[in-house]
Design a protein that fits this description.
Elements: H1 2-5, H2 7-27, H3 32-37, H4 43-72, H5 77-85, H6 89-119, H7 123-140, H8 142-180, H9 188-200, H10 216-241, H11 254-262, H12 265-300, H13 309-324, H14 329-362
């Protein structure tokens, strides 16, 4: 635990692990997202979209975002986007809240499905357990959230590495065959861009931990590392499931499908426990970003968000998302995320990569 408290970890690695934590449930925890935006374009097309488009875009945009945040001391999305978009900052909030509800609906749906299909427990029980865990963590605040997200990310890396190795041993010939086929279907670049767009919006949930960064070098380095830290588990997962292409394409939760094919009950149970924890990670990180935004607004009026009010915000969002989850996991990911992607391109990515860079250059607040 001392490593998690070190200055090096907080400056260079913590933002990446928090970013990875908040994207995983909506980015590749169930595997459905990787199928939708990458594997649908063939094994090689998926790798190109993932590495040449999504990862590269993540690293570059996050590096600029972290430096912009450091320069303006904007550690919640309200402050950040007021500086970036001026009086139009509320447009981001509208899109972000809608996106947050979609992600929470995906998380709630996945949690219910995991509990129901694999442990024989009623669907609603999974949702209730996740709701209680998110409420508890948001009640405890930033310190515990940082530690939990970092610790669980480390566990997740280990499990994904084990999953990758076991899949290589079990399905090595099939994986090699599908990769050797060289299948690249039209649309792989667009798939990578859309995946990058909607996941980058999760930076709103990363801003709270950027206050540890003090210099431009630290900000840019942390941003570049965040892209790599964020994609690595997803890349390992992608290679592991390539052996099941194209049979895996219609599966609602591809991760469970492949684990069942592996025929190792212990790994299946362990993976699903870790996956359930990642659902809690993402829900906590995103709702914490809303709490920090509310706290910032109240602080500007010389008020504050009470500790007991934080879990109430979490419960409110999760209950609304529970209603949205009735649309189904596949539809939410394919249609909801796809629509949100274009919104974030225009209200976040393009502004931060143009006006954001201009403001960084012109700012005189830097010590560098």
């Amino acid at each position: 635990m001392l490593f998690f408290k070190s200055s090096f970890f907080k400056k260079y690695l913590l933002p990446g692990f928090v970013f990875q934590s908040v994207i995983i449930a909506g980015g590749y925890g169930t595997g459905r997202e990787l199928v939708e935006y990458f594997l649908n374009f063939g094994p090689i097309g998926g790798i190109l979209g993932m590495l040449l488009v999504a990862t590269l875009m993540w690293s570059i945009v996050l590096a600029v975002t972290y430096e912009f945040s450091r320069k303006l001391k904007a550690y919640d999305y309200r402050t950040f986007f007021m500086n970036l978009l001026g009086p139009f900052w509320f447009i981001f909030e509208i899109i972000y809240v809608l996106y947050l509800l979609i992600v929470l609906a995906v998380i709630g749906s996945a949690a219910g499905i995991l509990i129901r299909d694999n442990f024989g427990i009623p669907y609603i029980a999974g949702v209730v357990v996740m709701l209680a865990a998110v409420g508890f963590l948001t009640f405890k605040g930033s310190g515990l959230i940082e530690n939990f997200l970092s610790f669980w990310s480390m566990i997740l890396y280990v499990i994904y590495a084990v999953f990758f190795v076991v899949a290589l041993v079990k399905f090595g010939p099939e994986i090699q065959k599908n990769l050797a086929s060289g299948t690249i279907l039209p649309g792989w670049a667009l798939g990578g861009f859309k995946y990058a767009f909607y996941n980058l919006a999760n930076v709103a949930a990363v801003l709270f931990c950027l206050n540890h960064i003090e210099t431009r070098k630290e900000a840019i380095s942390a941003g570049l590392l965040s892209g790599l830290i964020g994609i690595l588990p997803g890349f390992l997962f992608f290679i592991a499931v390539v052996g099941q292409y194209p049979a895996i394409l219609p599966e609602e939760i591809p991760a469970v499908f492949v684990l069942q094919k592996l025929g190792i009950p212990f790994l299946l149970i362990l993976f699903q426990i870790v996956l359930f924890g990642t659902l809690i990670e993402t829900g906590t990180g995103m709702i914490h970003s809303v709490n920090e935004r509310i706290h910032s607004a109240l602080r500007s009026r010389k008020k504050e968000l009470k500790q007991w009010q934080r879990p109430l915000v979490a419960v409110s969002f999760l209950l609304i998302a529970l209603g949205i989850s009735t649309f189904g996991l596949i539809n939410l990911i394919a249609k909801g995320y796809g629509t949100a992607s274009w919104g974030f391109l225009f209200v976040y990515i393009l502004p931060v990569m143009t006006y954001g860079i201009y403001k960084i250059i012109k700012s005189r607040n830097s010590k560098n």
